[in-house]
């Protein structure tokens, strides 16, 4: 066992050396020349065939060129070259790792990953910036997106449901900046989130009643706080008899529901023609007979159409927004409506918001990487021209004697007053009369 660990450590150390990068680049060029000489249809080769080809050619190359490496180092280079020719090079293992949430590449020497909400640097690197671009273009090839000086920024959805954002020189000063967001193939259910500690069973029951009671819900939080995962989980409470339309800039939602229509905006061509914004999709979705509309992220003029939909028979709709608190969420809705050209008075806008939104769920990422619901707040109406709210649950962890924290959600025992929850009133009273603090 100790020998295997030592070999793994030695292998990692070798892969960080310039010698490894130089030999791999040298061998890679040799392999490309051999492929050209053979005239084979390389694109149709299976991974096993590519691996066999790499092993045979690398062995011959090392012997003929008298490359000063041992068998173990040869195997490491063969593995790297196989990933280079048939996959996504240095980041292939990260893309396959289910624990990795984000892959961040800052130039060819600096690669960071996020696991369980914690960002850390990993000990791998690319040969140079051209190597990064070669792998990025291979990722972008199946989705037909172009990346060059005339189009130096790309934001796209990957075939597996993830998302990639790339920005290159001259906009990115220190080399290509690549951000890859991965999404689970099997979205987390509410039970999974309870198990992970995102919220407790009492909040889970309240959210289930709110969704089934067709309350309009806004999930508010910062970047990478878990908004999309929570929205996915909430959608599992939607009855199977209902038709759900999802609208997103980059399709990230993966709803576990039998009747979902997924719409995605289009950024347009090089000359900015053909743009289809979320606002256009939301307007069109109203003609698609939706029972519920779910907007992946509210960040522009679509806020007006969303509020009108919520106010005119599309109860039970949901969306996410970037905001740091429930009150800030209301302010941001007002601001976005103002930017979108809302013509009415401030009071009438706030009345629309108060009538449209029933619940704001604030979610955040703690310093240790854990995602937690920080607040469940009900919008109760308009009071002296101010949107009135009452907080039903608030996250207040308990500090243990050993210095660690234990999750706790505080409630004042107030039941939601929304008439949409009238048929759940008895269950809600029982839920809030259980003596919890």
Automatic annotation (TrEMBL):
<dbReference type="InterPro" id="IPR001482">
    <property type="entry name" value="T2SS/T4SS_dom"/>
</dbReference>
<dbReference type="InterPro" id="IPR027417">
    <property type="entry name" value="P-loop_NTPase"/>
</dbReference>
<dbReference type="InterPro" id="IPR050921">
    <property type="entry name" value="T4SS_GSP_E_ATPase"/>
</dbReference>
<dbReference type="Pfam" id="PF00437">
    <property type="entry name" value="T2SSE"/>
</dbReference>
<feature type="domain" description="Bacterial type II secretion system protein E">
    <location>
        <begin position="86"/>
        <end position="362"/>
    </location>
</feature>
<comment type="similarity">
    <text>Belongs to the GSP E family.</text>
</comment>
<protein>
    <submittedName>
        <fullName>CpaF family protein</fullName>
    </submittedName>
</protein>
């Amino acid at each position: 066992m100790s020998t295997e660990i030592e070999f793994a450590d030695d292998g990692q150390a070798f892969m960080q050396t310039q010698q490894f990068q130089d030999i791999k680049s040298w061998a890679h060029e040799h392999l490309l020349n051999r492929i050209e000489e053979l005239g084979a249809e390389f694109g149709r080769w299976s991974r096993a065939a590519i691996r066999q080809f790499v092993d045979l050619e690398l062995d011959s190359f090392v012997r003929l060129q008298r490359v000063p490496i041992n068998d173990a180092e040869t195997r490491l280079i063969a593995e790297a070259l196989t990933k280079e020719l048939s996959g996504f090079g240095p980041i292939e293992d990260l893309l396959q790792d289910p624990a990795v949430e984000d892959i961040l590449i800052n130039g060819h020497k600096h690669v960071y990953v996020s696991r369980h909400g914690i960002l850390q640097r990993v000990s791998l690197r690319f040969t140079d910036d051209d190597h990064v671009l070669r792998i990025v273009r291979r990722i972008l090839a199946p989705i037909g997106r172009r990346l060059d000086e005339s189009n130096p920024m790309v934001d796209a959805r990957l075939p597996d449901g993830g998302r990639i954002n790339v920005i290159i020189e001259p906009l990115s000063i220190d080399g290509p900046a690549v951000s890859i967001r991965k999404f689970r193939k099997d979205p987390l259910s509410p039970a999974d989130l309870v198990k992970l500690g995102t919220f407790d069973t009492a909040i889970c029951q309240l959210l289930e009643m709110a969704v089934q009671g067709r309350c309009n819900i806004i999930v508010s939080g910062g970047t990478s706080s878990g908004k999309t995962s929570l929205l996915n989980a909430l959608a599992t409470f939607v009855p199977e008899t209902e038709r759900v339309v999802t609208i997103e800039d980059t399709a990230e939602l993966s709803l576990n529901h039998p009747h979902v229509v997924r719409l995605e905006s289009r950024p347009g061509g090089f000359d900015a023609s053909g743009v289809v914004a979320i606002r256009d999709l939301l307007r069109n979705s109203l003609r698609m007979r939706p029972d519920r509309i779910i907007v992946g992220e509210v960040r522009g003029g679509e806020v007006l159409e969303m509020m009108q939909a919520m106010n005119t028979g599309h109860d039970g709709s949901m969306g996410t927004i970037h905001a740091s608190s429930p009150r800030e969420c209301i302010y941001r809705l007002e601001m976005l409506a103002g930017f979108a050209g809302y013509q009415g008075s401030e009071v009438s806008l706030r009345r629309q918001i108060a009538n449209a939104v029933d619940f704001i769920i604030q979610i955040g990422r703690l310093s240790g990487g854990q995602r937690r619901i920080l607040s469940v707040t009900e919008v109760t109406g308009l009071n002296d021209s101010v949107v009135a709210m009452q907080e039903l649950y608030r996250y207040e962890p308990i500090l243990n004697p050993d210095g660690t924290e234990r999750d706790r959600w505080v409630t004042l025992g107030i039941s939601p007053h929304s008439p949409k929850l009238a048929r759940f009133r008895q269950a809600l009273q029982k839920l809030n009369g259980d003596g919890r603090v």
